[in-house]
Design goal:
Blueprint: H1 2-17, H2 32-69, E1 105-108, E2 114-120, E3 124-128, E4 135-139, E5 143-145
Antiparallel strand pairs: 1-2, 1-5, 2-3, 3-4
């Protein structure tokens, strides 16, 4: 938008300054308002360059502030409840999964993540793990009821 106004001002200034047919030295003088706009544009350009370097310098300050206020110390997270995947033999599963309904929560045995049941199949459950995980189908022997 700024470029539009600047280019329009320049176009009006140049077209009005050279509209006369006489090219004597007295008529080639720059009008006062055109001089004002030119000085204003030069000042604006210099201030934009200064602002660019100030923002560039601030990126180093942000990095230093981040290191000061957010140290890279390990955060303590609560450990998930231990799950014994050897509790069931191959092909067997937690029989409580037969009573699971759509919308119930189940636990994935491989990593302990809580999933929401979306659809129920014969030997599998389709579960949503989160927004990025999407909906995946899991065999019942890889899940545990909560």
């Amino acid at each position: 938008m700024k470029r539009f106004f600047v280019s329009t001002a320049l176009l009006v200034a140049t077209s009005s300054g050279f509209a006369s047919s006489s090219y004597s030295s007295s008529e080639l003088e720059m009008p006062g308002w055109l001089l004002f706009i030119a000085l204003l544009m030069i000042t604006w350009g210099v201030l934009e360059i200064i602002l660019f370097f100030k923002i560039w310098g601030m990126t180093n300050d942000v990095r230093r502030l981040t290191n000061q206020f957010c140290p890279k110390a390990p955060m303590e997270t609560p450990a998930p409840k231990p799950i014994n995947p050897d509790k069931y033999e191959v092909g067997e599963y937690d029989r409580r999964l037969d009573n699971v309904k759509i919308g119930d929560k189940v636990r994935r045995l491989s990593d302990g993540k809580i999933l929401e049941v979306v659809s129920i199949g014969e030997n599998s459950l389709e579960c949503r793990g989160g927004m990025l995980d999407g909906i995946l189908s899991y065999p019942k022997d890889s899940l545990a009821a909560i």
